[in-house]
Amino acid sequence: MTTLDSVNKASKPGQPAIAPVESSNDIPVAKRKQTQKKQPKWLKPTLYILGGVGLGAIVVLSSVLLLMQASKTSPTATPSEPETPAEQSSPAESVDTPDVPAVENVLGHLPYEAAPESELQSLSANAQIRLRKAAAQKFNEMSASARASGISLVPLSGFRTVEEQNHLFFGVKAQRNQNASQRAEVSAPPGYSEHHTGYAMDIGDGNVPSVNLSQGFEQTAAFQWLEKNAARYGFELSFPPDNIQGVSYEPWHWRFVGDIQSLETFYRAHNLPTSSTVKSDEQL
């Protein structure tokens, strides 16, 4: 291999020495550095921008794919239907409240509609006293059964029109110089008497008429027989002691509850607030 010393020695006297060269490259070092091209100043920022745009596109595309996948797995949305009353939420205090029509309680009495004339039937014992057909038939049967046992059940009053009750309440009230509360203690206002329904009646003892329409009736054989047997014929005492309506005790006042219509008519009162003042329903 030729060395620098050998080259210099080979040169003629007075000639400059030859510049050293790389053994693996014929281009001198100084010139080789000059041949390397410089990168433009705008290249790096452009590469950063392109990289950021590409990364953002990847994120957006991934989100779109995830949403498409979620829509495939979830059920198709449909317009919601309004809740039914049973599905709607309600306050806790009204959950167990029964559905009872709002009925006004006046002076301890409840309103009743008058029975249609076509549904009324006269009693066998007194043709002037009428009840609804089912109630009249059952009272006739009950009266005959009691008579067979020596008991005299006397019908004292049955169906009354609103006009008749108007006279009993306001007419007698004026005659006796009573105020409304006083009169309500012995008679219901018109439109508020059970007698309007055609299911209610007053019963006396034919053997002891002196106690009719008084609490003394409970001492008679007729009342004691009714206590034991009236339910058999669909009758019950309307106003027993401490009744839910707050009406005073009337042992003579009975009502028929032997079918669905009569039962519904009277048992509305069982879920209604009662007056604190104790009144009587029908006492002449």
From TrEMBL:
Domain D-alanyl-D-alanine carboxypeptidase-like core: start-end pairs: 129-259
Source taxon at top rank: Bacteria
GO BP: any one term: proteolysis
Bias (Low complexity): 74-94
Keywords carried by this UniProt record: Carboxypeptidase, Hydrolase, Membrane, Protease, Transmembrane, Transmembrane helix
GO MF annotation terms: carboxypeptidase activity
InterPro entries in UniProt: DD-CPase-like, VanY-like_core_dom, VanY/YodJ_core_dom, Zn_M74/Hedgehog-like
Transmembrane parts of this sequence: 47-68
Region Disordered, annotated ranges: 1-37, 74-99
Protein's UniProt name: D-alanyl-D-alanine carboxypeptidase family protein
